[in-house]
Amino acid sequence: MWTFRRMLAISWTLKVSNEEVLRRVNQRRELLHTIKIRKVAYLGHVLRHERYELLQLIMMGKVAGRRGVGGRKKSWLRNIREWTGIASAAELFRLAKDRQEFTKLTANLR
Question: Which 8-state DSSP code applies to residue 84?
Fold first, then answer.
C-alpha cells in the first residue's frame, strides 16, 4: 500500500484511507490472495519454531486417534500444497526450515 501512496505523492500526515488509495490507482483488494500469503507464511512460522511442536505433530499426522464421523474435509495443509504446487507435505516441511526459500515460495503465490 505504501508504494501506491508514494506514487500518488500522498503525505503521511493526510488521513487517506487504504480503500481511497486503491480507488485512485484503480486496484482492488484481493482478499483470497492475502489469505493465501498469510496462511503460507504462518505455516512457515509454525514449522520453524520449537514451541509449536504439538502443532507440528498434528500437521504431520503423528497423533494417535480416530477421525470423526462424516466425509473428509479439505485439510489446511492440502490447501497450501495445492497453492504452492508442492506435492508432498514432507517437501513442504523441509522447505519451511529454510526461511529464505520459504519466503520465495510465499512471494510467488497467485
Answer: H
C-alpha cell at position 47:
514449522
**pLDDT tens digit string along 20-79?**
999 999 988 888 888 888 988 888 888 888 888 888 777 777 767 777 777 677 778 888
| Amino acid identity, position 103 | T
Is residue 43 within 8 A of residue 96, CB to CB? The reply is yes
- CA-to-CA distance for 35 and 9, rounded, in angstroms? 29
Helices (H), 13-75: 18-24, 31-48, 53-60
Q: CA 66 to CA 14: how far, in whole Å?
A: 56
Q: How close are the terminal C-alpha atoms of the chain, in Å? A: 18
pLDDT of residue 106: 84
- Determine the residue type at 76: W
